[in-house]
Amino acid sequence: MNENIRLETTYYANGQVKEKLTRRGGRLHGPATSWHPNGTLAAQGEFRNDEREGLWQWWTPQGVLISEGYFLDGRIEGRGSEWYASGRLLEQCTWKDGEPHGLATEWYEDGTKKSEREWFEGSLHGRVTEWDCFGNVICEADYLNGDELRCLRPLLREVG
Asked: Which pTM does this prediction carry?
């Protein structure tokens, strides 16, 4: 084994493995895995020169995938997704250089669409639409470089 590469394992007080990391030359470099105290997988991915690289995933203590994203040089890149603990989709967003870029969609836990937002390099840019839990549009607005240009449909409905 190359003496420049070191595998590290840390443990919870109960003896359960908490984390396994790979270091090269003192820097995080290689597979990284962590577990919840109950022994289920908590997170898994890879580091390159102390930065997250490639696919990273996170789970609840019950084993449900709640988040995943691809990383490049430590910044999230491409599609990232999050789920409710129930396993239903919570949000999907496209990322560029660690900033939201493109369409981001969010859902209520029952699967009803909650919002759609257009992003450009980290700023709202384009149409933003929000729905109530019944599927009714409650707000629509257009943005340019983070500034609201016009509100097409403000919250008009009264609940009751």
From this structure: 0.86
